[in-house]
């Protein structure tokens, strides 16, 4: 009978499930209500209704149903699963645990419910309870997977639990995990490859390398894990310093694959260790002579491979590093590099290979080395490559020339000649070797054009003009018309457009890159992070939404990856997923974009529509769920997930000048790694200021719009704390004395927005705004003085915007300094926009309160006349409310005037034009005229759109202020 009832229930619920599955939530709600009309108490139908309501955005109704169900006794799996979906989508993972704990008490021997409880603990990283439930499952059903769930939970307690920093506790837990597996091994119950992997890992965590090696070579491992990667054995032998065995193993592996560069490095290390320890063994290479002989043996063969030649260079380098003379054994280092170029210069990877070893070549030898490579190519200033291989060698030699600093010491005229020559070489390569290519192929001569772009950037820096950069954009667009998939050209175009402040052009290029998934985090810095400065919220908002959706979805889905890893026994992947989740959750890019998206929502015109009422605006603000008293960012755990190597650089780290001196190529940092660290630190400081701005703004709004007297004290305390901390944030940023990142080379990271914010009156304006808000809220005496201070700040901001545009209009080159001016203008408008919204909130509050006070006063006067009394309290209250309202109105009038000044200044902002001189240069390059027209048109259209969107934002604020 029970089976019949279950079948009937499933038949009735099936339409609801089907509708939810295809995303038709409205239909699912209707179907759920049909079922509930017949059986109002059916738990699963109610849970499905709650899920449908949740997905329709009716959170409050859904929450009421879920809360009612949580108070009931539920132990049927379908209802519990639907409830789980509801809790997951509202990010209440802890309540899933509570729900299943209650269900387990009702059905303590239900294996399925117990396994769901285990997975619920997995989602919140409760390793101790995971262990308890896993053992409970094993006692109920003695299955190996349950047993290893418990083992893995113990391992995670040791490595990631609250006691992970306590060595004694960690040792006890790992020992317990090992003994549990030892028990199964002794009982011959081990039966899965994943379990063997876990056991080896447990031994490695305890540094029991000898036991791990013996187990790896033992019968159990050979039976269950015959495909164990050799890397495990290599790591164990290295940890045990078994250099004889490792040397023999590496020789065997290299015999099978002569081109494994990573194996050569380990092999050479074993040779050094054996020679230093004066150890030897049958078949081992325990001297440098034997090592060199083996490498030479690997070079033999009909097919030349790069591995042994790179190994010889590495051996030469390491001998010099150990103060041993390698020349008698290997020859001159420079000659080895030349030989490598002769053999592999026609491969696209050759330049990167040589680059690895160039830093170990003495500085005074580098320019001569680059010259010899040019000679080796057989190409002079009057000749062109005769075949593709010769062209690739020429490209390699030019890339190396730039890397050693040859371009940095050339004069302006020589640089102009160089970029012209490179452009011509590119066009020759396209016509001679780039015909009939597949659309997905990268043209063989494309590197000529990419190098030319770098040279053009160098020229623009020398003359401080945009001419050559616009020319570079035209060349890159021409390149992309021939090689549409060349992502190197797209990335350089993106860099140039952002450097020149052309957000529209950058967006067009960014869309062709088709960046998605994890790239939104690792590559978001090249475009998404720069959008707040371009003055185009219409293109910024969709990209912010896509980026944030990736992060929120990935953080939710990654929890399920952990559960799936347990289900399938993929313990080796568990910690990878955990690390991935932590990196995403603590990504600096994620935190910064989250804050910028909310600030843009509040500040830009899309937030306050022409037809939007203040009530609607406040509803939108509330939906953001900003809690200014909470700081959820783990500042000490923020991660830099940027892939800075995505843009290949050939710029020198050190440059030899004409006088023979060596100077750092970057004025502020000396290496890409240091540049990345410095940039990360500055952006983290920027995030502190932006979070502080958001919290202070939200606290002011909460204080002014709160209608519950019970919350006044709490909101006032939050506001006061943020008000006092505001100046401290700026003091901390200024005391750090950060310097803008150098823009000497095109691939350098653009300066952080931190510097523009510190240079503008953010600190003074929002401190004055917060002070004024506190004054009018608490009814402090003489609000006019604070209103005057705030009005002066508004005048300062508007004057700054007007001065920046006036100054820019006077420049002859309106493109060169565009990015810097545009960033300041956008920031000024942001300041006024945020202040506008806060002040209008104050007007709405006190205009309504004043009206209520007037009505109350009239009633009091009437009673006083009837009773011959006086209403002192009513009179004083009326005066206080009136003073506050008058102060707000005065500030709003002043703000409206300053916004009008900004609007007029934007009207006067001149449109950037491409110079006639540049048009002649492009014609000389024989580029397609449409290329120039497209690029120059993008700059004009970008200016028009930026001015339009900024003016719309200002007009919205003027309209909003005038209504007040």
Outline the fold blueprint.
Elements: H1 2-21, H2 25-38, H3 43-55, H4 59-70, H5 77-89, H6 93-106, H7 111-123, H8 127-140, H9 144-160, H10 167-186, H11 193-205, H12 209-216, H13 219-224, H14 230-239, H15 243-256, H16 261-277, H17 288-299, H18 306-321, H19 327-330, H20 333-344, H21 350-358, H22 366-377, H23 388-403, H24 412-433, H25 446-463, H26 467-482, H27 487-499, H28 503-513, H29 519-522, H30 537-567, H31 571-585, H32 588-603, H33 614-623, E1 654-656, E2 662-664, H34 672-705, H35 712-735, H36 754-759, H37 762-778, H38 783-809, H39 818-867, H40 872-907, H41 916-924, H42 929-963
Antiparallel strand pairs: 1-2
Helix pairs in contact: 1-2, 1-3, 2-3, 3-4, 3-5, 5-6, 6-7, 7-8, 8-9, 9-10, 10-11, 11-12, 12-14, 15-16, 16-18, 17-18, 18-20, 20-21, 20-22, 21-23, 22-23, 24-25, 25-26, 26-27, 26-41, 26-42, 27-28, 30-31, 30-32, 32-34, 32-39, 34-35, 34-37, 34-39, 35-37, 37-38, 37-39, 38-39, 38-40, 39-40, ...
Descriptors for this entry?
72% helix, two-stranded antiparallel sheet, flat, 964 residues, mainly alpha
Summarize, please.
With 964 residues, the protein is mostly helical. α38 (783-809) runs antiparallel to α39 (818-867).
Question: Care to describe what's here?
Answer:
The chain is built from 42 helices and two strands. The chain is mainly α and 964 residues long. Helix 24 packs antiparallel against helix 25 (446-463), helix 27 packs antiparallel against helix 28 (503-513) and helix 30 packs across helix 32 (588-603).
């Amino acid at each position: 009978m029970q089976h019949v009832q279950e079948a009937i229930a499933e038949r009735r619920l099936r339409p609801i499930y089907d509708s939810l599955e295809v995303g038709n939530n409205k239909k699912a709600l209707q179907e759920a209500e049909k079922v509930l009309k017949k059986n109002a108490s059916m738990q699963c139908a109610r849970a499905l209704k709650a899920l449908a309501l949740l997905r329709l955005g009716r959170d409050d109704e859904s929450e009421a149903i879920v809360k009612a169900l949580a108070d009931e006794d539920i132990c049927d799996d379908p209802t519990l699963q639907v409830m789980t979906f509801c809790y997951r989508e509202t990010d209440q993972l802890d309540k899933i645990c509570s729900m299943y704990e209650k269900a387990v008490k009702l059905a303590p021997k239900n294996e399925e419910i117990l396994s769901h409880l285990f997975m619920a603990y997995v989602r919140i990283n409760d390793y101790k309870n995971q262990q308890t439930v896993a053992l409970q499952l094993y006692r109920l059903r003695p299955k190996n997977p349950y047993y290893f769930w418990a083992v893995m939970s113990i391992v995670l307690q040791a490595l990631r639990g609250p006691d992970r920093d306590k060595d004694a506790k960690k040792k006890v837990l790992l020992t317990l995990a090992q003994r549990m597996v030892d028990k199964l091994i002794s009982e011959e119950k081990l039966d899965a490859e994943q379990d063997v992997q876990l056991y080896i890992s447990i031994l490695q965590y305890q540094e029991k390398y000898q036991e791990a090696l013996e187990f790896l070579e033992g019968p159990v491992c050979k039976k269950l894990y015959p495909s164990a990667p050799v890397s495990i054995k290599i790591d164990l032998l290295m940890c045990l310093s078994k250099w004889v065995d490792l040397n023999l193993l590496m020789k065997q592996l290299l015999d099978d694959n002569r081109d494994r560069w990573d194996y050569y490095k380990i092999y050479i290390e074993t040779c050094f260790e054996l020679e230093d320890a004066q150890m030897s063994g049958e078949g081992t290479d325990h001297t440098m002579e034997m090592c060199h002989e083996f490498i030479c043996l690997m070079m033999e063969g009909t097919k030349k491979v790069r591995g042994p030649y790179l190994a010889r260079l590495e051996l030469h380098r390491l001998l010099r590093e150990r103060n041993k003379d390698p020349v008698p054994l290997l020859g001159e280092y420079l000659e080895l590099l030349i030989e490598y170029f002769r053999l592999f210069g026609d491969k696209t990877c050759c330049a990167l290979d040589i680059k690895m070893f160039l830093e170990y070549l003495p500085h005074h030898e580098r320019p001569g080395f680059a010259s010899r490579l040019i000679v080796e190519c057989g190409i002079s200033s009057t000749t062109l490559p005769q075949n593709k291989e010769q062209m690739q060698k020429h490209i390699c030699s030019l890339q190396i020339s730039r890397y050693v600093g040859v371009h940095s010491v050339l004069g302006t005229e020589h640089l102009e000649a160089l970029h012209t020559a490179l452009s011509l070489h590119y066009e020759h390569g396209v016509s001679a070797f780039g015909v009939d290519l597949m659309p997905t192929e990268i043209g063989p001569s494309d590197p000529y054009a990419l190098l030319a772009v770098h040279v053009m950037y160098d020229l623009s820096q020398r003359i401080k003009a945009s001419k050559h950069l616009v020319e570079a954009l035209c060349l890159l667009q021409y390149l992309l018309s021939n090689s549409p998939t060349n992502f190197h050209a797209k990335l350089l175009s993106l860099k140039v457009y952002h450097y020149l402040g052309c957000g529209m052009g950058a967006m067009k290029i960014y869309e062709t890159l088709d960046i998605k998934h994890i790239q939104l985090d690792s590559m978001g810095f090249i475009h998404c992070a720069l959008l707040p400065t371009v003055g185009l919220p219409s293109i910024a908002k969709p990209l912010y939404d896509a980026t944030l959706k990736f992060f929120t979805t990935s953080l939710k889905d990654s929890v399920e990856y952990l559960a799936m890893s347990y289900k399938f026994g993929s313990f080796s992947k568990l910690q990878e997923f955990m690390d991935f989740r932590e990196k995403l959750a603590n990504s600096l890019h994620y935190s910064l974009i989250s804050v910028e998206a909310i600030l843009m929502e509040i500040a830009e015109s899309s937030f306050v529509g022409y037809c939007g009422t203040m009530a609607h605006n406040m509803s939108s603000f509330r939906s953001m769920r900003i809690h200014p008293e909470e700081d959820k960012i783990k500042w000490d755990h923020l991660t830099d997930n940027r892939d800075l190597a995505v843009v290949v650089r050939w710029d020198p780290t050190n440059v030899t000048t004409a006088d023979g001196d060596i100077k750092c190529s970057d004025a502020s940092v000396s290496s890409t790694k240091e540049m990345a660290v410095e940039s990360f630190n500055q952006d983290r400081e920027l995030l502190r200021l932006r979070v502080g701005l958001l919290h202070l703004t939200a606290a002011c709004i909460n204080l002014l719009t709160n209608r519950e007297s019970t919350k006044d004290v709490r909101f006032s305390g939050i506001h006061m704390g943020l008000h006092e901390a505001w100046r401290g944030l700026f003091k901390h940023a200024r005391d750090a004395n950060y310097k803008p990142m150098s823009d000497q080379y095109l691939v350098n990271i653009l300066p952080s927005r931190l510097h523009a914010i510190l240079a503008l009156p953010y600190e003074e304006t929002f401190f004055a705004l917060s002070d004024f808000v506190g004054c009018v809220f608490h009814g402090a005496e003489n609000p006019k003085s604070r209103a005057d201070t705030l009005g002066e700040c508004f005048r300062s901001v508007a004057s700054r915007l007007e001065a920046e545009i006036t100054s820019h209009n006077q420049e002859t080159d309106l493109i060169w300094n565009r990015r810097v001016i545009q960033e300041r203008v956008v920031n000024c408008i942001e300041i006024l926009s945020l202040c506008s919204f806060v002040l209008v909130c104050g007007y709405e509050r006190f205009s309504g309160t004043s009206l209520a006070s007037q009505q109350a006063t009239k009633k009091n006067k009437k009673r006083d006349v009837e009773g011959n009394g006086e209403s002192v309290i009513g009179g004083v209250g009326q005066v206080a409310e009136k003073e506050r309202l008058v102060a707000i109105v005065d500030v709003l009038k002043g703000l409206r005037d300053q916004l009008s000044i900004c609007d007029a200044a934007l009207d006067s902002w001149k449109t950037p034009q491409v110079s006639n001189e540049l048009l002649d240069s492009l014609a000389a390059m024989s580029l397609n005229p449409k290329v120039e027209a497209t690029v120059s048109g993008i700059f004009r259209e970008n200016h028009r759109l930026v001015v339009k969107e900024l003016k719309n934002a200002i007009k919205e604020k003027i309209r909003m202020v005038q209504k007040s």
